[in-house]
Amino acid sequence: MSAERTISPEKQPFSVRRMEVAGNYGPCKGVDMAIDVTESALRMVGKREPVYATNPIVHNNEVMEEFGEMGLVLVRRVAEIPKGGIWINSAHAHTPEDFEAAKSLDLVTVDTVCPLVNKVY
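The chain above was modelled as a monomer; its predicted structure follows.
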C-alpha cells in the first residue's frame, strides 16, 4: 500500500519528488522478544500471584489486554510493587533508579528491554 502526496516545489525542503511508504512487516525482534519473555513469565506464574509492570511491555493495546488477562498488573512506580514481587520491565528500558528500587524491594526482575535500546542507554 502506498500513499502519494504532492508538495509544492517552493515548500519542498529536499529533492525527493516521490516517496513510497512500505507496508507493515510486523514487530521488530526486540518487541518479539519482549512479548515472548512476558508470555513465558506469566504462564510460569499462572495467576498464582500478581506480576507487575510499570509501563506497557510493548505499545500494542491488544497484546497488553491479553497480558492483563494472564495476570499482568500495571502500576505507576516500582515502589508500588510489594516486597519480593515480580516485576517485568518494558522493552523500552527504565531508569537506573527503577532498578535500584527493584533491588531494594528484593523484586524478581524479568528483563524484556530490547538489546538495541540497551546499547543506546
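The mean pLDDT is 85.
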